[in-house]
Amino acid sequence: MTNSTSPNWSPDNLKNLFVELTRIRGMLKKCIDQGTSSPTPETESLSLPETTSSSSLNQLCHLFNISPFERDILLLCLGMELDPDFSDICAQVSPYQTYPTFALAVAAFPRADFRFVSSRSPLLGWQLVQVGEGLSFTQSPLRIDHRILCYLLGEPEIDAKLSGLIRPISTDVAVLAPSHQHLANQISTAWLQTSSSASLPIFQLCGADITSKQSIAAVACQQFDCNLMQMSAEFLPTSPDECHHLLQRWHREAILTNCVLLLDCDTISPADPLRAATLAQFIEGINSLLIVSTQERLRQRQRPLLTHDVPPLTHQEQLNLWQTHLGANAGELNGDVNAIVSQFNLSTATIQAACLHVNNQGNGEEKEALKTQIWNFCRSQARPHLDDLAQRMESSATWEDLVLPEREKRILQEIATHLRHRSQVYQDWGFAKKGGRGLGISALFHGQSGTGKTLAAEVLAREFRLDLYRIDLSATVSKYIGETEKNLRRIFDAAETGGAVLLFDEADAIFGKRSEVKDSHDRHANVEVAYLLQRMEAYQGLAILTTNLKDSLDQAFSRRIRFMVQFPFPDTQARAEIWQRAFPPQTPTEDIAFDKLAKLNVSGGNIRNIALNAAFLAADGRKAVRMSHLVQASQREYLKIGRSLTDSEIKGWI
């Protein structure tokens, strides 16, 4: 690095550069005066004045093992950028050439080293100096690379060809949780032990939370006294030649800035062969410190990856972080923090951001408002990215909207009880210490379409102020072996942070009765089911399966689900209740006969559709909702479901 803690470093560095340029100018003029192509002993006496060892020039020569002759060539090129007289001086040494060349350097400088012409020489190999077009190599113009020019001038600028690809990550990280600090210690210790070795270790951090992996990498770099840069693997060029040039640029930048690269591969699919090949080329070819961030483990053919799984923070680690960063608000929110930790699996950075937000807003806030504020903040921060696999549903339904037999209502209330007291039972009473299996709250809702299964999930999500995600299992299941588990893994990994309610619709698409295993596809279908059940059992939120065909489910699977709730087709009394709740209080109605409407043999979902369509018909006629509107809406709903509305069903409506 060229920057120094000394406030006088920058002016001293520039002074040193101009002292060096004066020396170069002197050697060039000596060459002109003597009219010779070989430097004299007097010329050699002008070489290498005393300069501070911390100057950018000395650091650059040390980093790239630059010889005295190459040092003078570099200064000659630097003089062309900083001193307008250098072009005239060059023309006097080599007529008709107003620019530096290798031939000019040989004529003017002592200790000429013809190894400079090799592509492996420091100046050319590291592209510190660029060679232009010319009649011959020795007569071709030489130009200092812009990144090296900035380095020598002490300007902290990233290579322009990398600036759009990499970004610096601050290593000024607060204390990590113990489990993550242990990983950072392992990485920095391994670097210290192999710093003099030709084979540098490559670490792979596997986990869903990129911020935790960034923090671990940052602390490891802090302990190793180096900087950290991050690059997305999506930016890697797929052309092998372009990837090779990128590696060269990065190697030089890593040396100049003393930095480690954190390569973010979280969004790279192993199923993309071109992208996987590019990634392999980059990892195999890199010759500097590298940390790879992935969600799923990468396999390399030649260079082994030292893989570490990055687990979520433990319950106690999260509690400690909340207590530390809440400050004066810790006592006020103590009980609520337990509920937050029980519900949300947040990273260190997210907890710090939440505490900062609350502490900035907390003064003068009512306690209840503060509790709501911090919960909503955590909920938004923990919201998973599942747009391509799940649909987030707004939950506005309440317990009063559910029309079910008392037995089924009690089971739903029992599910709510498990959610409410999960922290107390699992953490305070020690059940979590017996293992994670079976701690997930899972439920199977079975019944005909429109009987309230989705509505019940909405009620539970609203009760606990949680996001509700609907996953269509029939769309999630893939014909390609391994793709279904990958989709399910993405869903659960993303949802773990926020403990969202997961509603798996059409469960019979994957949970059919197990058939005799006849081929690999049958065998893998059973693996998919086992994987889904395993993740449901360990999921910290509520996972709900819905099906219209309970009898098609294997009993062995049913035993692994904690709650089974039947949603019966509503009888006449239940339909009357549903009709009465179908219209919001502000809806204008006139002479609605709910007892007659209840004779329609339809489910609650159909009833809500009919009520909504009738409201639109009434609004279009600028009237209150009447039975005549409900007749029209019922006819359309029956047509949609493939049934005929009989006269006996609507007898006496109008």
From TrEMBL:
Single GO term (MF): ATP binding
InterPro entries: AAA+_ATPase, ATPase_AAA_core, P-loop_NTPase, WHD
SMART domains the record matches: AAA (SM00382)
Domain AAA+ ATPase: 439-571
Name recorded for this polypeptide: AAA+ family ATPase
UniProt cross-references to Pfam families, sorted A to Z: AAA, WHD
Gene3D superfamilies per the UniProt record, alphabetical: P-loop containing nucleotide triphosphate hydrolases (3.40.50.300)
